[in-house]
């Protein structure tokens, strides 16, 4: 069974982060520059939250707050669902679907290893299906 570790091994090793006292505007700019939909909020080495596009939309834009004067810690999500390196792809997908989240930080006793997104899971699934189709086609045509 494939695990989250395999997905992380194919991703850029860096994790997009921001500090809790930076502004919501800084968070939006960082997400745009890095082409990501979320930033892990770190206070030192400790994960204290996650700020997502949805957080910015609901808690800054919809509430008509000044993004430059609103701190990340005031609008971030603090109840973070996480997974571990040994979490299976199916378990991660189930958590994302049932809890309606698009990003899962990957953590263990050593700290934060990365973040997987629903897009990462979909890309993995598409690749797996392409490989299966190729192998079956080769088998059917007698090239195996």
Name a few traits of the molecule:
alpha+beta, CBS-domain, 144 residues, three-stranded mixed β-sheet, single chain, 5 strands, two-stranded antiparallel sheet
Question: Overview of this structure, please?
Answer:
The protein has 144 residues and is an alpha+beta fold. It is 44% helix and 19% strand. The chain contains six helices and five strands, in the order αβαββαααββα. A three-stranded mixed sheet has the order 1-2-3. Strands 4-5 form a two-stranded antiparallel ribbon.
Short description:
This protein is an alpha+beta fold and 144 residues long. It has helices spanning 4-9, 24-34, 53-61, 72-75, 89-99, 118-140; strands spanning 17-18, 38-43, 46-52, 103-108, 111-117. The chain has a single domain (4-140), classed as CBS-domain.
- Tell me the structural class: alpha+beta
Total of domains: 1
What's the total number of strands? 5
Major pleated sheet: 3 strands, mixed
- Order of neighbouring strands in the sheet with most strands: 1-2-3
CATH names the topology as CBS-domain
Stretches where pLDDT falls below 50 for ≥5 residues?
Answer: none
Please indicate the percent range of residues in DSSP E strands (runs of 2 or more): 15-25%
Q: What is the architecture at the second tier of CATH?
A: Roll
Q: Please give the share of residues in helix.
A: 40-55%
As an assembly, this protein is single chain
């Amino acid at each position: 069974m494939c695990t989250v570790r395999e997905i992380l091994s194919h991703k850029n090793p860096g994790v997009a982060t921001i500090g809790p006292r930076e502004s919501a505007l800084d968070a939006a700019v960082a997400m745009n520059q890095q082409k990501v939909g979320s930033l892990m909020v770190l206070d030192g080495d400790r994960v204290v939250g996650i700020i997502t596009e949805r957080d910015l939309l609901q808690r800054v834009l919809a509430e008509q707050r000044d993004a430059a004067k609103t701190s990340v810690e005031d609008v971030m999500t603090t109840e973070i669902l996480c997974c571990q390196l040994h979490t299976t792809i199916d378990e991660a997908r189930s958590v994302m679907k049932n809890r309606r989240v698009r990003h899962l930080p990957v953590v263990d006793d050593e700290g934060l290893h990365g973040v997987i997104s629903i897009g990462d899971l979909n890309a993995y699934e598409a690749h797996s299906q392409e490989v299966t189709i190729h192998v079956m086609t080769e088998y059917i045509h007698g090239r195996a």
